[in-house]
Amino acid sequence: SHIHLHRVLPYSKRLMNAVVLPGETVIDATAGNGNDTYFLAELVGEKGKVFAFDIQESALAATAERLGPLNDRVSYHLDSHANVDRYVERPIGGAMFNLGYLPYSEDKTIITKPDSTIEAVHKILGLLKKGGIITISVYDGHEGGKEESDALIEYVQSLHQADVHVIRYELMNLRNNPPFLIAIEKLRDFEEVTRI
Ligand code: SAM
Question: Does Transferase show up as a keyword for this record (predicted)?
Fold first, then answer.
């Protein structure tokens, strides 16, 4: 397209596109309705693997339905992304988070939470390859959203600059609580990122 200043979701996909290689393992930390899982499954190709997490069975079912023939590239986990290290081995090429509640669901009280989100990001940083990227689409308009985004911002700002680069990206003229993106790029090999 002729557009360069993309919305958050397409911009996060461009970042994944730039760093993830065919055949790699990647993570969709918040499967939801499976849109990012589908994108990632196409990106890694038939030799790649997507680990998809959600705490709602209905979300994983919707994702499996969305994936169709690409399901053989996906490993589903009905568990919190905070337990990612129980299932996934390093190195992974990239990971996507889409915070908040499941769109179109009846229960909008099931949301991602500060502690588990940060624990998941922290662990995935250890699992990531050098040069890998984590994208986090952050919504702070719903109840509990601001607490989560504040905690996450404080966490990413505490990461050592020799370990990672962190950016915040947002369209500044959108109405009605648009999401912003936090993206973290791993600059060197480490198993646990340094907090300062
Ligand atoms: N990317 C998804 C899509 O394309 O449809 C939308 C994700 S939705 C905004 C957030 C999802 O995170 C919800 O489905 C919710 O159940 C899930 N979630 C909440 N807490 C979680 C946790 N601790 N671990 C994994 N998933 C979680």
Answer: yes
**Closest by Cα among 28, 133, 26, 135 to 77:** 28
Residue nearest to atom 7 of ligand 1 (CA): 32
Q: How far does residue 29's CA lie from ligand 1's centre (Å)?
A: 7
- Residue 89, CA distances (Å) to 45, 51, 140 in order: 19, 11, 31
Domain, as residue range, for 70 = 8-186
Per the structure, the count of domains in the chain is: 1
Looking at the domain assignment, is residue 134 inside a domain?
yes
For 49-68, what is each residue's pLDDT tens digit? 999 999 999 999 999 999 99
ipTM of the prediction: 0.98
Close Cβ partners of 33 (under 8 Å, ≥ 6 residues apart): 59, 62, 63, 66, 102, 103, 104
User: Which CATH number does the domain housing residue 91 bear?
Assistant: 3.40.50.150
**What is the whole-number distance in angstroms between the Cα of residue 138 and the centre of ligand 1?**
12
Query: Which residue from 16, 51, 54 has its CB within 8 A of the most atoms of ligand 1, so it is best to mutate?
Result: 54
- Which residues, other chains included, contact 65 with Cβ-Cβ below 8 Å and sequence gap of 6+? 34
